[in-house]
Amino acid sequence: MLNTYVVYVENKPGVLTRVASLFRRRAFNIDSLTVGRTEKPEVSRMTITVEADHDQARRIEANLYKLVNVLLVENITKQPAIIRDLAMIKVAATHEARSHVLELASVFRARVVDVAPDSLTIEITGAEDKIDGLLEVLRPYGVLEMVRTGIVAMRRGKSSATASNAATDEDVAAEDVSHSV
Amino acid sequence: MKDKTNMTGASILWECLEREGVKTVFGYPGGAILPAYDALKGSKIHHILVRHEQGATHMADGYARASGQVGVAVATSGPGATNMVTGIATAMLDSSPIVCITGQVGSKLIGSDAFQETDITGVTLPITKHNYLVTHASEVARTIREAFYVARSGRPGPVLVDITKDAQQTTCEFDWEAAKPQLPGYRPDLSPAPKEYEQALELIHNSKRPVILAGHGIIISGAMNEVREFAERAGIPVALTLLGIGAFPASHPLNLGMMGMHGEAWVNHTIQEADLLLAFGMRFDDRVTGNLKTYASNAKKIHIEIDPAEINKNVKVDVPLVGDLREVLHELLPKVETIDRSEWLDSIDKLKGDAAVRDIQNLPDSGHLYAAHVINDLWRETRDRETVVVTDVGQHQMWEAQYYKHEKARSLITSGGLGTMGFALPAAIGVKVARPEAEVWVVVGDGGFQMTLCELATIVQEKLKVNIAIINNGFLGMVRQWQEFFYERNYAATPLLNPDFAKLGEAYGIRSMTVTERSQVVPSVQAAREHDGPVLINFRVEQEDTVYPMVAAGASLHEMIRRPSKIVETAEDE
Q1: Does the beta carbon of B185 lie under 8 angstroms from any beta carbon of chain A?
Q2: What is the average pLDDT across B395-404?
Q3: Residue B483, φ and ψ in degrees, nearest 5
């Protein structure tokens, strides 16, 4: 199954390579990986999705913890979470197709961000299946170009062990580690 | 002290190494590390000049394995650094704490393909526990402190610190106290939950046929006494991995011997028949499990291991106890009940069967010199002393493991996980430096010896009393054995045309001899011991001897190729 991890890492050069190299070395194929800043400047946050069974998923978590720069790992696959992907889709839209494409975009609550004589570029944010859905209905018109960010994810409700804790409160983090086994 | 004074990065480096307790480093100078070498003269640290940077890493590794302290290797950028790769990978797979310090081109030149520039932190990323690129003198102190801490704590391993030339040359304020490690994500001290202890105890108390699988983790954790007390109290026999040899005394009645591909048949049968495996600081390597589908299929498994990533990696376990082995055993010991398991122990005795009769050691002297004879005689001659045997990789390594009876931890130093040929000779230098009072014997094949024999010069230059026993069969013996069994005796690229090793030794100024008969083995070992400098003995052994028993790669652990009884009869006829 597809597992989703939220990984807090030290914001230092080369950490992304260390994480990516780990997946390569242990022969796990990353489905998507995003990395960006957090509310704390010294902490970066990754969202990684990877195909793995139950045991593999736990080993990935344990291996991530072995990286010295990794602060906290959460497998949120089975947690209630907000998951968002962003896509920009350039669709061939000549005069007669244009209104159809605009209509479809509005049904999916997508935005048109660029208009050219023979194409429209649509931006859509949402869960992956929603984007897949829009893509499916646009395909007959001719998808000229498409880019997706890969998902970012956040657990719903109060965060239990956040990055700020991870960086400062060693006890909380250590407990999490032993549960990961 | 020199606290809060202005120092160059290079001086800070040596100062920090001294404060970390380093007495000796193994290294090789070059352009990008020259500022550090220039600052060496102000340091109390003894620098041993190696002949190849690979040797420096194996020496640091041997030093670490023999002493439990962090070993240090130094090299320059580019080729100096890449020559360390094999030694770093060796230390990584065997969890050996070493710190490798490399020079790097100036920080402004990084990325320009400058002379002798290599992205060594990139190269060593997957084979180090952690690594660092230091571009400012102000980062040197903290990085060195972190490197030592990471190398020796938790599951130990190699750490590489790459320091640019300008970071060595420029000055900054040195403040040891302020340079405390800052590793918010690094948590080496894990311990199991109370519930897991209870589950483990229940399995132990309900087990009728338990076996302890004793690994390298026992030695690293220093849990030899605890394991012994545990085994004795619970009446559980102990099987050893290659790197676990020495963790439990060979002469102990509960010691079964080595398990795995070249383990004794009864040990492997015992594991296959067990109803409970207690894995102590071992990682179920493919060389000890054989086919995982049929491995100890009736046994529950308890895995005491410091590295959470090892749990359920190869073998699914019932109860994992993640933590330092010694601490975990301290927790378990008071609660372990004494159970009479004599029935199980008796049945293991029966499994031994005719193995002793087939043992080459019991054959009469037919004029042939077998490696087993050499190793067994070496053991008899050196058993009463503090002896450390350092082996290379291949047939001689397995014979050493079978025929040299190790009583103490850190008395066998060998490359297990990576199986690095060329390891023994340099590693033995590190061993002798770490423990000068110990008698050090290198047991090495003619193939592996020639991979790193340049370090003979290091032995002589440093006046080290290292004894070298070359088990010379004129073949890459273990590969030849595989060709014999699995490639229809097609001995492709395994016969070796060797130089006269005794003459070679003499050329280096090492007292050397050649032994071709069994009766000469003991006198040659005695002569080596009496000589107060290094000695090399070239043992010309049987060319096509085979390590038995053998579990073929991928075969089940109980499916062993045994020494044919025919050979025993033939030899007796002679």
Answers
A1: yes
A2: 96
A3: -65, -35
Of B58, B52, B56, B49, the C-alpha closest to B89 is B58
Q: Distance (Å, rounded) from C-alpha B548 to C-alpha B568?
A: 13
Cβ B533 vs Cβ B267: under 8 Å: no
Q: Which pLDDT score is estimated for B354? A: 67
Strand-pair partners of A134: none
pLDDT reported for residue A178:
36
Tell me if B439 sits within 8 A of B378, measured CB to CB: no
A2-79: in CATH 3.30.70.260:
yes
pLDDT tier for residue B368 given thresholds of 50, 70 and 90: confident
For residue A157, the number of C-alpha atoms closer than 13 Å in the C-beta half-sphere is 5
For residues B168 and B8, is the Cβ–Cβ distance under 8 A?
yes
Assign A161 a pLDDT band (cuts: 50, 70, 90).
Answer: low
The correct answer on CATH 3.40.630.30 for the domain covering A82-152 is no
The residue behind tokens 């040899």 is B245
Q: At what angle do helices A15-25 and A54-66 cross, to 10 degrees?
A: 140
Residue B570 pLDDT exceeds 70: no
The mean pLDDT value of chain A amounts to 88
Which domains can be identified in chain B, with CATH numbers? 5-179 (3.40.50.970), 194-351 (3.40.50.1220), 356-573 (3.40.50.970)
Per-residue pLDDT tens for B108-143?
999 999 999 999 999 999 999 999 999 999 999 999
Identity of the amino acid at B511: R
Q: Diameter of chain A by CA atoms?
A: 63
What is the identity of the amino acid at B309? A
**Per-domain residue ranges of chain A:** 2-79, 82-152
Work out the mean pLDDT of chain B and round it to a whole number.
Answer: 95
Please tell me the distance in Å from A92's CA to the nearest CA on chain B. 42
The interface predicted TM-score of the complex, written ipTM, equals 0.90
- Residue in B125, B190, B316 closest to A177 by CB: B190
Which chain B residues in 101-160 lie under 8 Å from chain A, judged by CB atoms?
A: 121-122, 125-126, 129-130, 133, 150
Quickly state the pLDDT bin for A34 (edges 50, 70, 90).
Answer: very high
Question: Which of A59, A71, A181 is closest, CB to CB, to B322?
Answer: A181
